[in-house]
Amino acid sequence: MSGAVLLGSANPSPSRRLPRVPRRRDPLNLLGDPPDADRGDSVCPSPEPQLANTRRSLKDPLGLDAKRRKRKPKRKSSEVAKTSANDTHEPAVETDRSESASPQKRKRPKKFQFGNYNRYYGYRRPDEDPRMSLLQPEWFREKEVLDVGCNTGVLTISIARQFGPRLVVGMDIDGALIHRARRGLLLAKDEDKAFPESLSKTYGDLSVPSLPQPGSFPGNVLFTQGNYVLDSDQRLNACTPRYDIILAMSVTKWVHLNWGDDGLKRFFQRAFRELRPGGRFVLEPQPFVSYKRRKKLSEEIFANYQQIRFRPEQFREYLLSREVGYSTCQLVGVSTHSSKGFRRPVFVYTKSEVQR
Length: 356
Known about the structure:
By secondary structure, this protein is an alpha/beta fold. Helices cover about 30% and strands about 15% of the residues.
């Protein structure tokens, strides 16, 4: 009778609870007992209330997902601009959403209107100019030389170093290129130093100070900024002989496009007037085909291009005419280069020993 009472009892003793039924998602009870496991009124609690938490706990037992969810969302560009403006006590500048969403526009490449490319010798050879093989050392030895359109001065420095002229003047219309040419001259001067470069950077110039001697490198090099094209024919009368040799290497196209036929003729006449008797004018003209690629650099250049009647194939006849006055012309060769565009003929025009 008492056994019947014990078996039929609805509230068994807490000390003799029935074993819990293992859950399908946590058979080893790694998640611990549910909150109602200690109570005796429910032997097999329903898993539905803990189902969602069970999934998250099994996939992320360390709670890393919860930490990620607590991170602050990224602020918009307009909010960042307002915050930075408030920090610096400056008025906030709101950015347009359409501008911030659109990709950043690329900067337009610099237009080299005068052919003043800042990587000109990078396109050729930075360490060696192939046109040096076309020049004769006896033309330059103990002479005064002008290099018009010298760019960064690689050819100018090479002539001063290898051919022993008394003076070489490098002229370019771009002041930035002249600054780089002067730096290149300092680097060329430092190549013969006995001290390591690190010591020079730390303690300055360690060489024995000496005055540059005329006719010896690097005292025979001078770089100057200027425009060799005169603005009127009247100023030609003031030009007097100053140089024994003048170089115009790959500059005629840019003189032609920027100052037209009249400007290029004044360029040729000034070079002739500034040469001493027996002087040489070394000319490397660009073909007229190459003009077309640069005719739209500016409105002025396009207008000059449309009015050009003085073509490069007419240069020889003009320079040997009485209007200029050279006595002879010689083709010394064509510069060698891997690019076809740099394979240009080099001419030498000689001024007569007897002045008219």
